[in-house]
Amino acid sequence: MEIVAEFSPGKVHDVVVRPLAKYLDERGWLAELYRCDELAAETMPVMAYISMTQPGVARGPHEHREQTDYFCFIGPANFKVYLWDTRRDSPSFGVRQTIFAGVDQPLALIVPPGVIHAYRNVGRENGIVFNGPNRLYAGEGKSSPVDEIRHEEVEGSPFRLD
């Protein structure tokens, strides 16, 4: 795969950014992460997991060949999300997009296959991220190769986090 040496800022085609509404009452708050009547069938999660990321720590950059990720950034920290479009057939090929999400701006973020992505906890406390991918990790019974191409340790990679 030929890698783009420089990316221009902009919006990555097919990435969906959706605000997550918090419904507050005297007990606290509630947020709907996803509903089957609001998602396309091809992005519907088939599993879910949450991760905790410590302040200053990044996850990624990596990409998937077939998997769509459905991230929800809800806090208690804030994250800087990085997206790079390396899909040759995309109208936003060569675009880099950054998004801030988390406690100050709760967001759902749908990242399609082929979009390289990463996020860094830019807050001062541990942050929680939900992901509902549309593919099972390592397939049925965890018996298939993992659909992930990692770019974290590639020397000279154009996928840099600031």
Automatic annotation (TrEMBL):
Cited InterPro entries: RmlC-like, RmlC-like_jellyroll, RmlC_Cupin_sf
EC annotation from Swiss-Prot or TrEMBL: 5.1.3.13
Segments of this protein annotated with the region Disordered: 141-162
Function, in words: Catalyzes the epimerization of the C3' and C5'positions of dTDP-6-deoxy-D-xylo-4-hexulose, forming dTDP-6-deoxy-L-lyxo-4-hexulose.
The protein's name in its UniProt record: dTDP-4-dehydrorhamnose 3,5-epimerase
Top EC class, one word: isomerase
Gene3D superfamilies the UniProt entry points to: Jelly Rolls
Catalytic reaction annotation: dTDP-4-dehydro-6-deoxy-alpha-D-glucose = dTDP-4-dehydro-beta-L-rhamnose
Bias-annotated ranges (Basic and acidic residues): 145-154
